[in-house]
Specification:
six-stranded mixed sheet; 8 strands
Amino acid sequence: MGPDPQRSAFPEAAQHAAVNLKRFFAELKRRKVYSVAVAYVVFGAGLIQLATSVLPSFDFPVWSTRLVIVAIALGCPVALVLSWFFDLTRYGIARTPDLNQIEIGRAPNVSEHSIAVLPFADLSPARDHDYFSDGIAEEILTALSKIDDLRVAARRSSFWFKDRQADLREVANKLNVAHVLEGSVRREDNRIRVTAELIDARKGFTIWSDTFEREIHSIFALQDEITRAIVDKLKLKLAIAAPSQTRNLAAYDSYLQGLFYSDKSTEEALRKSLQYFTDALKKEPRFGRAWTGIAKSWLWLADAYVAPLEAYSKVREAALNALKIDKDDAEAHVYLGETKRILDWNMDGAAREFCRAVALDPKSTPSNYFSAAFCAALGERQDALKYLQRTATIDPASLWVNNAACELYRYFGLYDEAIAAGERALQLDPAFVYGEPLLAALYRELGRFDEAIALYEKAQDITGRGAFGLAITYARMNRPTEARQVLAKAVGSRGSYTPGDAIAHIHVALGEHDNAIRELERACNERSSSVHFIGIAPEFKPLRSDKRFLSMLKRIGLEPERVFAAGVP
């Protein structure tokens, strides 16, 4: 006898109700409703006690005391409702972001012509070709992103779901797409089997699926074939075929392994990616994307693991080599633009590279994000916000994008947007693989010191590095001894190179302006990549009247008045 469907539904419904109730209580805590309730009860009780003691002494009628009690009682639900919608910050009253604002990639409209390409599963016998299955998915994603009228979720966002067993409707909702492509790859000896399935994620049915068995040397044609099938089913025009700069399979295999490691954050992984990219170039010297991969790896090694003068020189060399082979490589233009900004302080030259990158690949995360950061540093507020919002649409589930967006929005005083981006970053990865959680800096600016400290301390425990932001926080709280202790730990945990502007932040907070200027001069001389943000960062506002600071901003290519006007008033 089978289970009674009505009975079996009750435990599921009860579980669902319990989850909803748990979320409701968690939301009450996030919006500080509990804190307001306790504070209101304490304040109200004190006010009632004062009224009952004082009013009779001045011969007020009995009903006046009762009126005070009733008014306080009626005010309680009003206070709780207001606490649900608003936060009281040091900058005044700010609206509390709704949960749908901080869900990953939440957006109101879903385009019919939109797709996310999930990483393909590795079904090889030894499960040792993860890089290869990821690479095939990325090649298809890259080819699709070149098609007009098709919005493709960026790699970092769609690949975030790898090994997470997410429901396809959840994926589509979080990435704001109508379709999802998933598949698997089985590679054995010289044979490869690829299964691909295109799904209408809103309706939950398969539009197209197929299985391909080929010799491994046919992988390039196979990727083109899958791309064309998807475009045909979505009734789009394929104006650009999926390109491949090399038909050398050994070089391509090394390139995919380099790509796999270049997306990781550790020094070991990034240096391993350099080895694979270099190996690809030995096998195929005209493989331009391998040079772009080298530029990317050195960019992420810079500042964090390698002094910027050394690292960005290698970024420039690799980007120039990539562009000699393919002058229309948008990503290489981005990296060349960064070297012009950082090494040369050539802001006009950098601007031309970023504009070229956006023109070549307007749907690229690097093109739009680095353009947003560049415009923010220059004080070009509207352009920065335009590129930042494009990036959020393209790459809604990228930890890197959301963490950095939190900082840029903070610079502009857009605290609701900054909180939403910072909380998305925490949802994506509480382990802070890109360093300090920039949401903590926002909490500090809003006067929420306890929350800032908790995030910084958690980051320190995970990364083993001292947090510069924690030192700034202690300095702001007038706890200079602890600030200096954390500063010493932060400097000691970073090896031979520490950005001078990071240390200068703390000296400014401690009121040590001469020391701050000295460290900023060192940052300029060593070409710290973040030195261009000292003009717009609110932490440096105390230096804005210092002639040395103003001279420094002009020397590195900024216009102080424009930058100051674009930031927090």
